[in-house]
Design goal:
Shape: globular
Order of helices and strands: HHHHHHHHHHHHHHH
Number of strands: 0
Largest sheet: none
Structural class: mainly alpha
């Protein structure tokens, strides 16, 4: 078979995947654009410190509806901690935010089904609450707000283009939609700009995941991957969770990759959820910044919460299925 013919086949299979999800993709993008247009997630964030221990619940809920990934959430977390927010709700937000979003939920429903979407949503809620309450109960072991950072961070607004620490300097002001918002006070136009950004940002990860899945399904023998994905061996779940840590996988890429294998019925519930949760919850760029800013015990707490929480919810999903 010629290279040209092979490329045509790959393109057709990729196009079939896009056709399969585009309606749900559009719905998810629209919901996220609406949230960002009216800044509902920002309004909730501003009242986090008023709820005491209940802020863990609020932060977890915010994480599941926020369109932010781990890398986008981390500067927000740091600014909240500097303002005096306890680590517990901040950790709940940091852990839950990469796992679920309106677009992520909609795409999960369409690609691998409502049961997987609900399981993923429940896992995001569990992960946020688990991270928040564990952090709360060990707060006296060196995890108070004033004990977290390696060094005192420069004062100022992270949104200021002249903020001296480039690790935290926010570039959201340079986004297309925010440039539009500064010039036009029309919510519908701003909504369209936010939606456009969502299509570009989320769409590229969906395409990457679909392309990897198409390549894997076509060129990697099923008897290599299927035994791992379908395994009910209890050791596979922690192995998949740990193996996913160095992979740069977000919630959209993860579900796109598993789509074909789940359709073929070769993915066990525990292993599938471990991949859907363990990959997105730990992002290499976020971990690098995390390790550079915080004391080592905070970094290792974050990793331990991510791995332990993923294993617990994956075992539970395997048990009840």
């Amino acid at each position: 078979m010629s290279i040209q013919t092979e490329l045509i086949i790959l393109f057709k299979e990729l196009a079939q995947g896009v056709e399969h999800i585009w309606v749900y993709f559009a719905i998810g993008i629209a919901i996220e654009a609406l949230i960002r247009t009216f800044k509902w997630h920002v309004k909730i964030r501003k009242v986090l410190d008023r709820f005491g221990i209940y802020a863990i619940f609020v932060a977890t809920l915010l994480g599941t509806v926020s369109p932010l990934c781990a890398c986008g959430t981390l500067p927000l977390i740091v600014s909240l901690l500097i303002a005096g927010l306890p680590l517990a709700p901040a950790m709940a937000l940091l852990v839950s935010a990469p796992l679920m979003s309106p677009a992520g939920y909609a795409i999960t429903v369409k690609m691998i089904g409502a049961n997987w979407a609900l399981a993923r949503f429940a896992a995001a809620i569990f992960m946020g609450l688990f991270a928040g309450f564990v952090t709360h109960f060990i707060r006296n072991k060196g995890f108070h707000t004033y004990e977290l950072f390696k060094e005192k961070l420069p004062e100022g607004n992270f949104h200021d283009p002249d903020y001296p620490d480039e690790r935290l300097r926010c570039i959201c002001g340079e986004q297309f939609s925010n440039r539009i918002a500064r010039k036009i006070n029309n919510k519908f136009i701003i909504f369209l700009a936010k939606a456009y950004e969502g299509v570009i940002k989320i769409g590229k990860f969906a395409l990457i995941g679909l392309f990897v899945e198409v390549l894997a399904a076509r060129y990697i023998p099923q008897d290599w991957i299927a035994p791992i994905l379908s395994s009910t061996n209890p050791l596979i779940i922690p192995a998949i969770t740990i193996a996913a840590i160095p992979l740069h996988i977000n919630q959209i890429t993860a579900v796109s990759f598993l789509w074909g294998f789940i359709e073929d019925g070769v993915v066990s519930n525990g292993v599938g959820l471990a991949f859907l949760v363990g990959g997105p919850v730990t992002a290499i760029p976020a971990m690098a910044v995390f390790l550079s800013l915080f004391k080592k015990r905070v970094f290792f707490l974050y990793i331990a919460l991510c791995v332990t929480g993923t294993v617990i919810c994956s075992y539970f999903y395997q048990l009840i299925s």
